[in-house]
Every structure is written in C-alpha cells, then in structure tokens.
UniProtKB/TrEMBL annotation, chain A:
PANTHER family: LIPOPROTEIN-RELATED (PTHR40394), QUINOL:CYTOCHROME C OXIDOREDUCTASE MEMBRANE PROTEIN (PTHR40394:SF2). Coiled coil: none annotated. The lineage of its organism: Bacteria, Pseudomonadati, Bacteroidota, Cytophagia, Cytophagales. Keywords: Membrane, Transmembrane, Transmembrane helix. It comes from the Bacteria. InterPro entries: ActD. This is DUF3341 domain-containing protein. The keyword Transmembrane helix applies. The chain crosses the membrane at residues 57-77, 97-120.
UniProtKB/TrEMBL annotation, chain B:
The gene is nrfD. Belongs to the NrfD family. It comes from the Bacteria. The chain crosses the membrane at residues 37-60, 80-101, 113-141, 161-182, 222-241, 261-280, 301-323, 343-361, 368-393, 413-434. InterPro entries: NrfD-like (IPR005614). It comes from Fulvivirga marina. The keyword Ubl conjugation does not apply. Keywords: Cell membrane, Membrane, Transmembrane, Transmembrane helix. It is a multi-pass membrane protein. This is Polysulfide reductase NrfD. The keyword Transmembrane helix applies. One of its GO terms (cellular component) is plasma membrane.
Length: 176, 455
C-alpha cells in the first residue's frame, strides 16, 4: 500500500482524553502519523515524542546576524567611508550606535525566525492544505494513522482507537 | 492540563463550548455588513476624504499651510505622531508582555488591540513623513541608501534617525506577530466558507494551515519568542521617541525622566484607546461573553497604575526644574502652568492625573458608560500632554523678541482628521473581514474557564 494516502482517523472532543489516548495508542504499538487540533494542546508534543523545536536557535542566530550587520554598517559608513565631525564626537563611537543595533537585531531575529517557521512548516499563501477532517479548525481533535506505515490490520487499529476514547473512527482516502 | 483556581472569575462566560466560539466570531465575518457598520464606514470615509484634501494641499503648497512659525517649528505634527505611537503601545503590551506573564485574560482582547497597534503606527508614521513637506524624499533620505552625494550617509548619532529604525522595526514585528496569530483563525473561516470568493481569499490568507501538532508546537515557540522580542522592542520605541526631545538642549525637553515617563504615558493612552474601541466592538458584535466586565476592570486597573505613574512624573519634572537651579528650566515649567498655554496644561493635569483616580471606586471601574467616557477623557489628556511638552517649551525661546504663539490652521486639523479617517476605516475593515477575537487561543481556555462557569 502507498504511504500518505490511506488513513484511519480517530476524532476526539476533549483535549485531556486526547492526551491520554495518544499515550495509549502509541503503547499499543500503533504509529501515529500526526494529530490535528483546533488550538494548541499543551503537552501534546511530549506524548507524541516530538523533539523540541530548534526555532529559538534560529532566532538567536538571525539576531546575531542583525547585531553584526548593524554594527558593521554604522562603523563603516560613519567611521571609514565618509567620516563627519558631528559635535566634535568620535567618528565611530559605539554608544550612539546602540539604538539602531538593537532595532536591527530584533528585526532580523523576528523576520528570520518567522521565515524559518514558514519554510519548515510549509506554510505559504498558495498552498492547498490536505485536511483530514473539516472540523479540525472548528472543535475536533483528529488522530491520523497512516495505514501503509503500520503492520496491524485496519480493524485492529480501529479497535485500539475506539477503545482510547475517540467519539468517531473514520476512514480517509486521499487521491493525490 | 490547565488548572484554574476556583476563586478566579471565568474569562469566558455563558458556558460557551469550543464550537460556540467558532460560531460567535465567524458570524461577524460571514454575515452581511450591519447598518451600524455601514454608518461608521461612511463617517470614516468622509473624514478620510476631508483629510486627504488637507494632505494634498499640504504636499502641493508645502508646510507653510500649517500654523507653524519661526519659533514654533513643531506643533500638531509631532504632537499627533507621539500620540498615535503611544496608542499603539497597548496592543503590544497586551499581546506580548501579558503573554510572557501568562495572563490569560489577554486572549479575548489581543487580536483587536494588535490591530489597533498596527493602524495607530501607520497613522503615526504619516506625520514624520508629511512634516518634511516632501514625502517622497523622506523615504529616501531617511534610510542608509547609496546616493550621488558621496555616498553621504545618514547620521546614526541622531535620535530622529533612531526613530526611523525604531518605528519601522516596531511596525514590521507587530505586523508579523499579528499575522502569525491570524493564520489558524483564517483557516477556521476558510473551512466554513460557502461562497467561492471567500473560500479563495481565506484560503490564500490561511497559508494552507492544517492544525498539525508539530506546526502548533512550532507556532507556540514562535509566539513566545516574538513576545520576548516585542517586549524590549515596545519599551525601546517610546524611549527612542522620548530621545527626540530628551537629547536636545531645549528647557522642558532636556530631562532624563522622559523615557520611563513616555513609556508609562504610552501604555496609559493605549489602554484608554483599547477600551474605547473594545466597548463599541463588544456591543455591536455582541461579544459580552468574551470581553466581560472582568476584562474591563483589569484594563481600568492598568489605567490607574500608569495614570498615577504619569502623574508622579509630572510632579517630579516640576520639582526637578526648581531643584536644578537653572533659570531657563524653571521658567519653562512656570510658563507651562501659568503662561498663555495654562489652559492646555491644566486640561492635561485634569484629564491625566485626576480623572483616572476615579477608577479607585469599584462601581466606576466596572461601569461601562463611565469607562467609555473616561477612556476618551484620558486620550484627550494625553494629546494635550504632548502638545504642552512640545509647544510650550518652544514658544518662548531664549530670545524674547522671537516669542510667539502657535495657532492651528485648517490644514493642521485636516491632517489630524486624515489619520482619524485612516485609522477608523482600517479598523472597521478589520472588524468586518478579520476575526476580531483570537479564536484558537480562546478555545484553549474554554475547558478550564467557560465550561466551569456552566456548572
């Protein structure tokens, strides 16, 4: 069977039931493709066994880039390229460069991190999402099991999900 | 698992379920525009029209059409600039600082407050641009771009240039923060849309959001770091705005108290504007269960605190002027309170220092009509604060023969009206086509907050 096409979906109404269900389903040896929620459920990433996101590191590195660029730009422009006497001050002195350096650090850090987030999460304006269930963005949590990636039969998987507190167990087939 | 103390008031009342949240918020977006919205839009567009004429004439004839003179070179333009930037600060405070402090009551007001921030910053940015007279060169001369004079670079020692960077960074980061929060809610509207146009439009706006746990995990991380970045940013913005004055040698401006005093004033006026807008939005869109009296009371408490800080700053400023022993400084302050602009000074004192103290009474700070009136009074007071600081410090300079008064012309008022028209047109469009409450965030507290109140 081809992967990423045939799914069994467990629909949950309550986030606390969902958290317990994820642990239980994983313990029964079923591989979960992904869980979809209408709002962020705290602790879901831990029970799913996801590694912590490295986006904070990206933010830090982009921030560092901003600091470096800002300091280099200001020192070069006012200190070397066209030195100007302004109130008899040093050509390139750091204190008056602090505000612009700070602003560019924040700007690059924010834009860089958000850009990284968009790329790694594949969020883009023209993308058509593969929705498991239309109610995900309303009030239902959906646990999706990729049949191709599990050795258990469909009925076994459905049984495990049904026992875990799901209010509905559905099939989902993608054509593309 | 979220645990909320049983003594804490529910943040969402009426026993709303998760599905009710989607229904209540999407209804505004999906329905036809109401009569009150159409009326509001008509008034805003009319104001924008008059304002656009004033802006056109200003650009055509130059800033001579304003009431400025040789002595008073800054008046309504920079007053309005500081006033609008200040208003913007409340949105970031609500969405970023309250997020870092894990204050969940921010959730039903942050979306509209951030929208207010973005529109207010756009209005603010009009003034530095327009007061240069030649808007088009403003963009070019203010940025460190290569040019044919050398390149002769911008002066990085100048607070006015710091402002360019501060305001543009603040605008960009606020916009990004706001948009990231909107994506999941656009997806909710997309999945409910019945007609082709809204399906396509919200499909593009929602960036293909599918609600995956991994994306949510990253989303939360991004939101937290953006909040961490926006917090020092918002404090830096008004600090830098205050540097425009504080680093000068004008008596009345040259004070070290300006940065904290400006930041407190900004939050003070911003919260007042949030209340003005939210009280109307809440009524028109029937959001009483989401923006409760509890929310209004908490915002009023922020107003008492920041209003009192501002009051203490006024008194400190006065005291330090006397204590400094500098004649020019002492004169500047005596002239503010008793000179030809005494009425502006005492309007500011009454509106900013005395009126918010009424919120110490619980029945006033939980009264909607009283809150609405006081929120407008605070914003009038904060406009006068900036007017007093700018005009009264300038109008009597070191040379008595050049002392002058400032009288606004039609074009001073007109350009101010332009920004009002722009602000309310943008806010009304937002209120109609965007979800005014952050659905995803509110849904996450339904179980701990709303359903409890049902029992």
């Amino acid at each position: 069977m081809e992967s990423n096409k045939n799914f069994v979906l467990g629909i949950y109404d309550d986030e606390d039931v969902l958290l317990k269900a994820v642990t239980k389903v994983r313990e029964s040896g079923v591989k979960i493709h992904e869980v979809y929620s209408p709002f962020p459920v705290h602790g879901l990433d831990e029970v799913l066994g996801y590694k912590r996101t490295r986006l904070p590191i990206a933010a830090f590195l982009f921030g560092l880039l901003g600091t470096t660029l800002a300091l280099t730009m200001q020192t070069w422009m006012l200190g070397f390229d066209w030195p100007m006497i302004i109130g008899g001050k040093n050509f390139a002195s750091i204190p008056p460069f602090v505000p612009v350096t700070f602003e560019l650090t924040v700007l690059l850090s924010a834009l860089g991190m958000v850009g990284t987030f968009m790329i790694v999460s594949d969020l883009k304006p023209y993308k058509k999402p593969r929705l498991m269930d239309i109610r995900i963005t309303d009030d239902k949590h959906v646990m999706a099991i990729d049949l191709a990636k599990n050795k258990l039969t469909v009925d076994q998987i459905k049984g495990i999900i049904g026992d875990s507190g799901a209010t509905e167990v559905n099939d989902k087939k993608f054509e593309d | 698992m979220q645990v909320t103390s049983s003594v804490r008031e529910p943040l969402v009342t009426g026993g709303k379920t998760v599905h009710d949240v989607t229904e209540d918020i999407c209804r505004q977006v999906e329905g036809k525009p109401t009569k009150s919205w159409m009326m509001g839009m008509a008034i805003s567009l009319a104001t924008l029209g008059i304002g656009t004429y004033a802006v056109f004439m200003l650009l055509w004839d130059g800033i001579g059409v304003w009431g400025l003179n040789k002595t008073v070179g800054w008046a309504w333009d920079i007053t309005n600039f500081v006033w609008w930037v200040g208003i913007g600060h409340a949105g970031t405070l609500i969405s970023a600082i309250l997020l870092l402090f894990r204050q969940k009551w921010r959730m039903s007001i942050n979306r509209a407050a951030e929208a207010m921030t973005i529109f207010a910053v756009i209005c603010a940015a009009c003034f530095p641009g327009l007061h240069m007279g030649r808007l088009w060169v403003g963009f070019y001369w203010a940025l460190p771009l290569p040019n044919t004079w050398g390149s002769l670079w911008v002066n990085f020692n100048s607070p006015l240039l710091w402002d360019v960077f501060a305001i543009s960074t603040y605008f960009t980061v606020s916009l990004v923060f706001w948009y990231i929060g909107l994506i999941p809610d656009f997806a909710s509207i997309r999945d409910r849309a019945t007609n082709k146009i809204s399906k396509a439009a919200y499909g593009v706006l929602s960036f293909g959001w599918d609600g995956a746990a991994k994306t949510w995990m990253r989303y939360e991380s991004v939101a937290l770091i953006l909040a961490g970045l926006a917090t020092p940013l918002v404090l830096s913005v008004h600090t830098i705005v205050s540097f425009d004055f504080a680093t000068s040698v004008i008596p009345g401006w040259h004070t070290t108290i300006f940065p904290p005093y400006f930041v407190a004033g900004a939050i003070f006026s911003g919260f007042a504007m949030v209340l003005t807008l939210m009280l109307v939005t809440r009524k028109v869109f029937k959001l009483e269960d989401y923006i409760t009296i509890n929310h209004i009371e908490l915002m009023n408490i922020v107003i008492i605190i920041t209003g009192s800080i501002v009051g203490i700053a006024y008194i400190t400023e006065f005291f330090i002027a006397w204590y400094s022993g500098v004649d020019a400084e002492q004169y500047a302050f005596i002239n503010r309170a008793t000179g030809p602009y005494w009425w502006a000074y005492w309007t500011m004192m009454t509106c900013n220092v005395i009126s918010p103290q009424l919120f110490w009474f619980k029945n006033i700070r939980t009264n909607i009509a009283a809150t609405f009136i006081l929120s407008i009074i605070v914003n009038i007071g904060m406009w006068f604060e900036r007017f007093v600081i700018i005009v009264t410090s300038l109008h009597r300079d070191y040379l008595p023969s050049s002392w002058a008064m400032f009288y606004p012309t039609f074009y001073d008022v007109g350009v101010y009206l332009f920004t009002f028209g722009l602000f309310f047109t943008a806010f009304l469009l937002f209120a109609k086509f965007f979800p005014v409450i952050n659905m995803a965030e509110v849904k996450s507290i339904i179980k701990s907050s709303s359903l409890k109140s049902n029992k």
